[in-house]
Amino acid sequence: MSTVRLSLNHMAANVVDALAQVGIQPSAQRVAVADYVLATEDHPSAEQVWARVKQRFPVLSRATVYNTLNLFVEKGLLRELVLAEGKVVFDPKLTPHHHFIDDETQHIVDIPWDALQVRHVDALRGFDVREYQVVLRGRRAAATRR
């Protein structure tokens, strides 16, 4: 068995374990969605997840993907983000961080939490802030675009 096959089997075992640890029954469809969405560095929409996973799992329905993503959010495996009006994406990175959205490509890039300083959040009167993030928009320098 090749090293690549061993890596894929190890990754699948980790996904099954991750799902089981949060009380999700690891069906073939859920594992297929998790294999992609929990490992990606992108911030895919549900439609993008469906299109990507359907390539490997052709019988996967759109409804199953939407239900699975919502379940993953509910169980704390993903974050659902609305970074632009009407555009919901999913983020597997659960640690605090910010986002940059390239105006030209709409590509979303994670920005380390420490890279920005937001001051006096705790001093806001009349607000009980549960979490916050900064969403930056602009254009990336040509050398850093993918």
What does this structure look like?
The protein is of the alpha+beta class. The chain folds into 2 domains: 3-90, Winged helix-like DNA-binding domain superfamily/Winged helix DNA-binding domain (Arc Repressor Mutant, subunit A, Orthogonal Bundle); 95-144, 2-Layer Sandwich (Dna Ligase, domain 1). The chain contains 4 helices and 5 strands. The strands form 2 sheets. It has a 3-stranded mixed sheet, with no helix packed on it. Strands 1-2 form a two-stranded antiparallel sheet. A hairpin with a 5-residue loop joins strand 3 (97-102) and strand 4 (108-112). The chain is globular and about 50 Å long. The two termini are 33 Å apart. Mean pLDDT is 87; it is low at 1-11.
List keywords for this structure.
single chain; alpha+beta; Dna Ligase, domain 1; 2 domains; two-stranded antiparallel sheet; 4 helices; 5 strands; 36% helix; disordered N terminus
How far from one another are the termini? 33 Å
Strand content: 15-25%
Assembly type:
single chain
CATH homologous superfamily descriptor of the largest domain: Winged helix-like DNA-binding domain superfamily/Winged helix DNA-binding domain
Estimated structural class = alpha+beta
- Estimate percent helicity: 25-40%
CATH architecture of the largest domain: Orthogonal Bundle
**CATH level 1 class label of the largest domain:** Mainly Alpha
- CATH level-3 fold name of the largest domain: Arc Repressor Mutant, subunit A
Spatial order of the strands in the main sheet? 4-3-5
Largest sheet: 3 strands, mixed
Q: Treating each run of at least 4 consecutive H or I residues as one helix, how many helices?
A: 4
Question: What string gives the helices and strands in order?
Answer: HHHHEEEEE
Number of strands: 5
List segments where confidence is low: pLDDT < 50 over at least 5 consecutive residues: 1-11
Radius of gyration: 18 Å
- Give the domain tally: 2
Mean pLDDT metric: 87
